[in-house]
Amino acid sequence: MKILVRNLSRDTIEHDVRKLFLDYGRVTECTLVLDKETGTSKGFAFVTMPNVEEAKVAIKELNLTMFAGNKIRVKFAGH
Predict the structure, then answer these.
(1) Which residues are in the RRM domain (predicted)?
(2) 61 contacts: CB under 8 Å, gap ≥ 6
(3) What is the pLDDT of residues 44-64, one digit of tens each?
(4) DSSP class per residue in 3-59
(5) Which end of the chain is less congested by CB atoms within 10 angstroms, N or C?
(6) How far apart are CA 48 and CA 18, in angstroms?
């Protein structure tokens, strides 16, 4: 299941996002979206978790929680 994580701190790195979701299960992909001009984070990422039940728990538990100083929004991103 692909998950969208929004409102990330601009200082957050991909490793931090992956680590956050690993507490809920296996992560097969984690992509922090970067600005092509500056190479800095655009403040959102996509995380893929193959187990749908683990992904649903991660979404429920992490949505609207504080992470690296920001209240993040986590939701199903589609296929």
Answers:
(1) 1-79
(2) 24
(3) 999 999 999 999 999 999 999
(4) EEEES--TT--HHHHHHHHHTTS--SEEEEEE-TTT--EEEEEEEE-S-HHHHHHHH
(5) C
(6) 10
Which domains does the chain carry? Answer: 2-78 (3.30.70.330)
Place of tokens 């949505």: 63
pTM beyond cutoff 0.85: yes
Residue pLDDT, tens place only, 15-46: 999 999 999 999 999 999 999 999 989 999 99
Closest CA to 4 of 51, 53, 58: 58
